[in-house]
Amino acid sequence: MPAEPEIAGKAAGKWRGRVARVLFLLALGILWESLSRAGVWNELIFPAPGAVIRSLADGIGDGSLPRAVGASMVRLGIGYSISLLIGIPAGMLLGRLRLLDDTVGSLAVGLQALPSICWLPLAVLWFGLSESAMQFVIIMGSLMAITLTVRDGVKTIPTLYLRAAPILGATGWRFYRYVLFPASFPSVMTGAKLGWTFAWRSLMAAELLYVTTGIGSTLMMGRELHDMPLVIAAMIAIIVIGLITDRLVFRLGEDFVHRRWGVG
Amino acid sequence: MAVVELKKVAKVFASQAGRLTVLVDIDLEVADGEFLCVVGPSGCGKSTLLNLIAGFERPSSGEIVVNGQPVTGPSPSRFVIFQEPALFPWLNVYQNVVFGLRMAGVDPSEQQDKAHALLKAVHLSKFAQAWVTEISGGMKQRVAIARALAMDPDILLMDEPFAALDAQTRDMLHEVLEEVYQQTSKTIVFVTHNVREAVRLGSRVILMSGQEGRIIEQFPVHLPRNRYLEDVEVVTIASRIRDKLRQEVLRSSGEEGEHAG
Q: Is B74 on the interface with A (CB under 8 A)?
């Protein structure tokens, strides 16, 4: 039974890692607290941990922080979903159709080189100062990454699957739905994760330059009010949201892919 | 009656080094219910021959006719079993077996009946719900056979299907295939580099040359069925084929030596 000690070893390693992480964060907090108590920097630019925690608590207490997070997530959810709905099928088609890849594919590669926030001026002129403008920036920021990752994944699907498909009668749309999509699912997962990262960054950039409700705007409001605890509180909220989505959503997806496809 | 007919088939690949002639002048007929084995040195074009019949590749010249119809592309009626089992890892064993039936829109209860019968035939009933990544190479190849039979093809094309398996597993799969062949009397074209395997399974063995991709000799195998790799008759015929094959390899490597010298 060589498997058991190995599993036990893994579990112990996991716990050791967790404890180390908590201790590290604790030490960081203590360092922070002692630096602010030493009074090296002005409290206006270097707030104490307590002030930041208070700011977080106030924000949660009066509902402004959840509201801002909620507004950002709805915005992100809509833009990101549209990106997935367009990007996944587009990537699959680009991976299969040479002519499309040579034309639309090279355009996507070009647009990928453009940082998403560069779309904002155009978006404002097209859509005005509206939700649509921000959605547009999110979509342009994440769509190319999703499309190109899925395309590359489709191109590396084992030839065996592609040869097995027609002899099993999977032709036409059935080929795309029942063979190509599941076969490229690992790269769809990778593309979705990458797209999420891009969408999230695009959203923050857009909200920073924009007066609206949202966690990015909360951050900007902190700057305008010279409310440093609020600035840091908003940054912490952004980090936490990022970690939660990574751990809960994408980690689960990756585990699933790893188990079933044996890759990823 | 011939199920598969190849008439003056040639296959030339364009490669960076120039034109690569893989098959020349192949005339071949495979009779209904025949178990044809194709042997030859590696690189002799035997897999290409199979891919042409399967419709994965088109001949450069000549014609391939199956059941009176020219081959224009892959079809479930000419089912291929590859060296790698090519099962879909996102489906479990059962789902892999019924995949083709699902594509064909077969009634679910009929799918179930068929799958259970086939899994039983390849001795995998207990593993219906297992994931492909959880089973051994030999089991995967048995699933591939069940999946092929589910499509009820006119012809089974097998491309060195047991080459990656260990000896015991291969023996067992020979028995499974033997049973399948005797029960269904499907037409089978079986490519292998293992001469004894060819004689153990085939009702006819064709030998291909290494250099220009021709059929150089045919060996009918009139031995009663349920043979074993160790049978004296099997070994005798195999050694005749192997002698011929050895001459062939020597001849072609001799030619290469001349080129090099």
A: yes
Domain region containing A21: 1-40
Whether residue A28 sits in one domain with residue A51: no
- Where do we find the tokens 């893989």? B22
* Cβ contact, residue pair A167, B75, below 8 Å: yes
Query: Is the predicted pLDDT of residue B257 greater than 60, yes or no?
Result: no
Contact list in B for residue A160 (CB cut-off 8 A) is: 82, 84, 86
Count how many domains chain A has.
Answer: 2
Q: How does residue B261 score in pLDDT terms, banded at 50, 70 and 90?
A: very low
Among chain B residues, the shortest Cα distance to A257 is held by B90
CB contact under 8 A, A178 and B79: no
Upper half-sphere CA count for residue B76 (Cβ side, 13 Å)? 17
pLDDT at A78: 96
The model's pLDDT over A106-130, given as tens digits with 9 standing for 90+, comes to 999 999 999 998 999 999 999 988 8
Sequence-distant (6+) residues with CB within 8 A of A145 are A87, A112, A191, A194, A195, A197, A198
- Chain A CB contacts of B157 below 8 Å: none
Examine the domain organization and report whether A97 and A171 are in the same domain.
yes
Q: Tell me, what's the pLDDT at A254? A: 87
Which pLDDT score, from 0 to 100, does residue B256 have? Answer: 55
**Residues of A whose CB is below 8 A from B91:** 182
Best CA proximity match to A91, nearest among A54, A52, A159, A144: A144
Cα dist. A232→A35, A56, A71, A236 in Å?
Answer: 16, 9, 19, 6
Q: Do B133 and A182 touch (CB under 8 A)?
A: no
Local structure of residue A176 (DSSP, 8 states): I
**Interface check A177 vs B, CB under 8 A:** no
Residue A195 pLDDT exceeds 70:
yes
Q: Are B100 and A169 in contact (CB under 8 A)?
A: yes
pLDDT digits (tens, 9 = 90+) for B2-18: 899 999 999 998 888 78
Residue of B88, B102, B151 with shortest CB distance to A182: B88
CATH number for the domain spanning A79: value is 1.10.3720.10
Interchain contact A166–B (C-beta under 8 A): yes
Please report the residues numbered 196 through 255 in chain B whose beta carbons come closer than 8 angstroms to any beta carbon of chain A.
Answer: none
Partner residue facing B89 (CB), from A167, A168, A260: A260
* B255 confidence band (pLDDT: 50, 70, 90): low
Cα torsion for A165, A169, A173, A174, to the nearest 10°?
Answer: -80
A-B CB pairs within 8 A amount to 63
Q: What's residue A2's pLDDT?
A: 46
Q: By three-state DSSP, how is residue B28 classified?
A: strand
- A214 and A169 housed in the same domain: yes
Query: ipTM of this predicted complex?
Result: 0.87
